[in-house]
Amino acid sequence: MVKAVIFDMDGVIIDSEGLDMEVKQALLKEFKLKISKKKIIEKTGETARDFFAYVNKLNNTNFDVEMLIERKMSLQRKIFRDKLRLFPYVKEFLRELKKNKVKIALASSSRMEKIEFVLNLLRLRGKFDVIVSADDVKKGKPNPEIFLKAAKRLRIKPKDCVVIEDSVHGVRAAKRAKMYCIGVTNTFSRDKLKEADLVVESLREVSV
Question: What is the mean pLDDT of residues 58-86?
Fold first, then answer.
């Protein structure tokens, strides 16, 4: 029985992956760091901490990761204010879950600072029973820690949770947490999300 739905944020609730690519490429250019667009896409779903640690290693540099993250957040705020949008049917689906007394969690690889900015910007404050961010875990996706922590805070067993994800790392983390996973093809193609139990093109295809 489904007792809780755990959402990823970027690429599931908010149409941000293209904007995130824009921000990352601008930041990498600013610091003269090199990484292919393909590799950036492959790292989708990881924490910013893991991403920039990888970039440092790839470029044999030693930039302060916290500084890079703060700079990324500054660029994101400027771009998100003008361009960020919700994916279709997000608010309707959240209302349907609430109406049917299904618990709702947000489990995002983003930091809480970004999550709060997004929720306030798009008027989603108070829509989630539990929020788990990159600040709350030691290991990011594809490690299952973030989803297991969300289930624990909801006081619901993992087997009674459904995760909605858009990334390969996110789907893998959900399955490692022993949760049912719905993959949404907002970022990756259907074949890339094949580890998910169900793959859909939009939240319109999902109901209680």
Answer: 95
Choosing from 8, 15, 50, 166, which is the catalytic residue? Answer: 8
How far, in Å, are 104, 154, 200 from residue 130 at the CA level? 7, 7, 24
pLDDT of residue 1: 80
10 is catalytic: yes
Secondary structure percentages of the chain, helix, strand, coil, to 5: 50, 15, 35
Strand intervals (E) in 16-160: 103-107, 130-132
pLDDT, residue 45, reads 86
Coil vs helix vs strand at 6: strand
First-to-last alpha carbon distance for the chain, in angstroms, is 11
User: If you average pLDDT over every residue of the chain, what do you get?
Assistant: 95
pTM of the model: 0.89
Contact partners, residue 77, CB within 8 Å, separation at least 6: 117
State pLDDT tens for residues 77-113: 999 999 999 999 999 999 999 999 999 999 999 999 9
**CA separation, residue 22 to residues 30, 105, 120, 167, 198 (Å):** 12, 28, 22, 18, 30
**Mean pLDDT (whole number) for 158-164:** 98
What's the rounded Cα separation, in Å, for the pair 131 and 60? 35
What is the C-alpha separation between 153 and 168, in angstroms, rounded?
24
- Out of 10, 15, 20, 50, the active site residue is 10
